Amino acid sequence: MCEIGDVYYGFCEGAFGRDSYGPKRVEGFGADWIVCRESNEWLVMATFESSEEKNAAVEKWRRLSY
């Protein structure tokens, strides 16, 4: 499950764009989207086909973040 303040590290399978490699802090989310702020203060957004796809991606990113 996605939470405000979560931090995802690295490329995140390109979900936030091909140039988004640094840490991203979750600023907002919905059923099938996530908005994060990068360390350079830019906002990036990822969209998904469904809430299930979003939740699976978030769980994978969490495992890669530790």
Spell out the blueprint of helices and strands.
Blueprint lengths: L6 E2 L15 E6 L3 E6 L4 E5 L3 H15 L1
Question: Explain this structure to me?
Answer:
- With 66 residues, the protein is of the alpha+beta class.
- It has one domain (7-65).
- It has one helix spanning 51-65; strands at residues 7-8, 24-29, 33-38, 43-47.
- Strands 1-2-3-4 form a four-stranded antiparallel beta sheet, covered by helices on one side.
- Strand 2 and strand 3 (33-38) form a beta hairpin.
- It is globular and about 30 Å long.
Brief summary of the model shown:
The protein has one helix at 51-65, and strands at residues 7-8, 24-29, 33-38, 43-47. It is an alpha+beta fold and 66 residues long.
Estimate what percentage of residues fall within beta strands: 25-35%
Could you list the spans in which at least 5 consecutive residues all have pLDDT below 50?
A: none
Query: What does the overall shape look like?
Result: globular
- The number of distinct helices, counting runs of at least 4 residues, comes to 1
State the domain count: 1
Euclidean distance between termini CA atoms: 16 Å
**Proportion of residues in helical segments:** 10-25%
Q: What class would the helix/strand composition place it in?
A: alpha+beta
The mean pLDDT is 93
**SSE pattern, N- to C-terminal:** EEEEH
How is the main sheet built? 4 strands, antiparallel
Radius of gyration: 10 Å
What is the tally of beta strands?
4
What spatial order of strands do you see in the largest sheet? 1-2-3-4
